[in-house]
Amino acid sequence: MYDTLIGNVRILDGTGGAETRASVALADGRIAAIGALPGAQARHLIDGTDLALAPGFIDVHTHDDTNVIRTPGMLPKLSQGVTTVVVGNCGISASPVSLRAEPPDPMNLLGGREDFNYPTFADYTRAIEAARPAVNVAALVGHTALRSNHMDRLDRAATQAEVLAMREQLREALAHGAIGLSTGLAYASAFEADTAEVKLLAEALDEFGALYTTHLRSEFAAILEAMQEAFDIALHARVPVVVSHLKCAGAGNWGRTKEVLFKLENAGRLQHVGCDCYPYSASSSTLDLKQVTDEFDIDITWSVPHPEQARRKLAAIAADWGVTLLEAARRLQPAGAVYHNMHEDDVRRVLSHPLTMVGSDGLPNDPMPHPRLWGAFPRVLGHYSRDVGLFPLIQAVHKMTGLSAARFGLADRGLVREGYHADLVLFNPDTVIDRATFAAPVQTAAGIEAVWVNGVLSYHQGQPTGDRAGRWLPRNGDLHASFAAASSRSPASIQSQ
């Protein structure tokens, strides 16, 4: 007697290989059988005839660090088929952190001082286990978080003694299962960290078979130099590297993704590289004075001193106040913003590239979040794969499942395979689509019929079931090997698109 039987369903198994049609049986939290399964009995029967079954989506780029504990229902992710989130991106993480004041920008994206209660990484993992979130959680350690623990101010490079103290704290986290180290070198809290600082810190990664992820020092004109810095750091540390939310930002940078991807491919001939991106031509973060320009629209999502200006364009605010854009931005800080700073052709070129995974980069604590928080994964399936025809559905699923699980060392996940954990999403390929918009961003997707996390039905027919079966996922094995095996094509065979 199986727990669940999903009958006669179209299976997209996460490998990127050809789809099949079969029945899938679940038992004891795992995929127990795949095949015709005549006469199979189960407590719960689901007819999959007009539907598709895929591994649960893995959001490799999130800022859900505190939300998996404070709001463990995780509806923004569960409702779009996400069963695992990777937290600790862009150099900011909830642990290990010991704050002496309010969190520095952009750590404030994760919450206020009261939300940082995890001085050690082990404290954080215990809190996740106690909260029982609805999705699985794997975690990176943020460089800026470490800096805030050991430095009196962040507008300078760290001393060697400070870096060594950070490295010991990183080693402790890696020993407790952290996936690797992330940096956010574009932000003021880390911009003054020189390459030598990051190299010295990253030396701890190789010992544990961990990886390095980075929000590049620049996504604008200096992007090639910033990419080279990331590759140099990873080569020095002898670890794989993932470039976070790869993009060419700024009007003067539009169209340069051809040379950016060419550089990524060339680096891949010498080392293990990859990237993630989100399927939108606008970014979102705190309001950054360096990104203030009249070349594209900037939407203000929140402001501490001027909350009444939320949901308005920066240009309109500046006009009302009779000041420049830069002066208006200064008056609004601290604040959040959406930057319409990318070209759609560049988004499509990066998203379709074989080295690219999908990550939402959603900001769950933003009162006016970018729609990627609720819609990134259905948008890849419905808009870019089905409607635009950017890539086949099997490739879309691979980018969100098998590729991600292999690169991040998530054992027995990311594939529809017997013996694997039953993290699964059942969706309608004809109707799946994101419904979240910039004007109304808090909306669940259409076409997500059911979601299982570790074999437990957690979302069904547009509603959470209330069952939360997510787990803390420690790093599994040496990521050098799994990362190398993740891509079915070698960089040398990839043609720039």
**CATH architectural group of the largest domain:** Alpha-Beta Barrel
Q: How much helicity do the residues have? A: 25-40%
CATH fourth-tier homologous superfamily of the largest domain:
Metal-dependent hydrolases
Kindly name the structural category: alpha/beta
Uncertain regions spanning at least 5 consecutive residues: 488-497
Largest sheet: 9 strands, mixed
Query: What's the pLDDT, averaged over the residues?
Result: 96
Element layout with pairings:
Blueprint: E1 2-11, E2 20-27, E3 30-35, E4 42-47, E5 52-55, E6 57-59, H1 67-70, H2 75-78, E7 82-87, H3 121-131, E8 136-139, E9 141-142, H4 143-150, H5 160-175, E10 180-184, H6 188-191, H7 195-208, E11 211-215, H8 223-237, E12 241-243, H9 257-267, E13 273-277, E14 283-286, E15 298-303, E16 312-313, H10 314-321, H11 325-332, E17 335-339, H12 344-351, E18 356-358, H13 372-387, H14 393-400, H15 402-407, E19 424-427, E20 448-453, E21 456-460, E22 463-464, H16 479-486
Helix pairs in contact: 4-5, 5-7, 7-8, 8-9, 10-11, 13-14
Could you please describe the fold and organization of this structure?
The protein is α/β, with parallel strands linked by helices and 497 residues long. It folds into three domains: 2-54 and 419-464, Urease, subunit C, domain 1, CATH 2.30.40.10; 56-281 and 342-413 and 474-493, TIM Barrel; 286-339, 2-Layer Sandwich (Dna Ligase, domain 1), CATH 3.30.1490. 30% of the residues lie in helices and 21% in strands. The chain has 16 helices and 22 strands. Strands 1, 2, 3, 4, 5, 19, 20, 21 and 22 form a nine-stranded mixed beta sheet that branches. The protein has a six-stranded parallel beta sheet with strand order 9-10-11-12-13-18. A hairpin with a 2-residue loop joins β20 (448-453) and β21. α4 (143-150) packs across α5 and α7 (195-208) crosses α8. The model is unreliable at 488-497 (pLDDT under 50).
